[in-house]
Amino acid sequence: MMKIKDKDFTSKKKRTKNEKNNYRRKTKRFTFTNGTLLYNHKTHGCVRVIKETERDIILQGCHSDPLAGHQGINRTTFKVKEQYYWPGLEADIRDYIRHCDKCQRLNCLAKASAELHPIPVKDSPFDMLGLDLVGPLNTTDNNDRFIAVLIDYFTKWPEVKTIPSKHSHHIAEFIIEVICRHGTPSEVITGRGR
Description:
Blueprint: H1 6-10, H2 17-27, E1 30-33, E2 36-41, E3 45-49, H3 55-64, H4 73-81, E4 84-85, H5 89-98, H6 101-106, E5 128-134, E6 146-152, E7 158-163, H7 168-182, E8 187-190
Parallel strand pairs: 3-4, 5-8
Antiparallel strand pairs: 1-2, 2-3, 5-6, 6-7
């Protein structure tokens, strides 16, 4: 059986001179005034150090509030740094904005890295159609949960119908209705749906 000496548990890690100097240098930026801890920022002067429990409220006020305007990472960081400080501030702001639902929905085109190519359109109406489904949505009185949308690429004419499910026979019935009214297309483009 191995014996453990008491000094192994009680010994403190010895700090090097370099570590001590770094610690002293970092603490010089902080001051304590009237019960408030302040951080002396290089460009913004003295700003308040924020507790962990206050961070979400500040991020919401500086980014998600209707008056904040859902600014990007750089502008929100600048706005927060003008008044507040906490360790890891920039990483927290980046994380908060990347998880912001409204920003994800509205800024999706800015993040697209692939180049967009227009689809060449045929010269006659209802020769090339685009088909897509919307849903599932709230169930209607007829038990419909999806919307089938068929658009003519030449005239931009939409044909829309609610359907109960996205099974092929419901979609086929919708396409047949459109074909009976407008004629047979040479192409039907879908979003890779089955």
